Amino acid sequence: YYKVNVMAYGSHKTIEFRHHSGTTDFTKIENWINFLRGLLEYSINNETIIIASSIDEIPFLTAAQKKYFNNRKSELNR
Q1: How buried is residue 38: exposed, middle or buried, by Cβ count under 10 Å (0-12/13-18/19+)?
Q2: Nearest 10 degrees: CA dihedral of 34, 69, 59, 36?
Q3: Selection from 5, 7, 24 nearest residue 16 by Cα
Q4: Among the four residues 2, 29, 40, 60, which has the most C-beta atoms within 10 Å?
Q5: For position 28, what pLDDT does the model report?
Q6: Residue 66: phi, psi to the nearest 5?
Q7: pTM attached to this predicted model
Q8: Distance between CA atoms of residues 41 and 35, nearest Å
Q9: What are phi and psi for residue 70, nearest 5 degrees?
Q10: Quick one: average pLDDT of 38-49?
Q11: Contact 29, 52 (CB under 8 A)
């Protein structure tokens, strides 16, 4: 299995993202959806490949999203 499944694109015109675990936490869901939306919009509008070694270097995230993901990273590293 892969975190991003592009194999179905040829027959269904879909890309499946499998990375996120199940949750009912709205804030997690909202940030995950906004991350994917930003990634897709950036990919459509830019040919440049993103090389980022930290969350703060991801160009399509807002300041609030970077703060959320950095906080989650800190929580998970405890």
Answers
A1: middle
A2: -30
A3: 5
A4: 60
A5: 92
A6: -60, -40
A7: 0.75
A8: 10
A9: -65, -40
A10: 88
A11: no
- Percent of the chain topping pLDDT 90: 47
Amino acid (one-letter) located at 76:
L
Contact 17, 3 (CB under 8 A): yes
Question: Whose CA is closest to 39, among 53, 29, 26, 49?
Answer: 49
At 45 the pLDDT is 93
Structure tokens at 35: 């991350």
Provide the pLDDT for residue 74: 92
**What tokens does 4 get?**
């991003």
Under DSSP, the state recorded for 49 is P
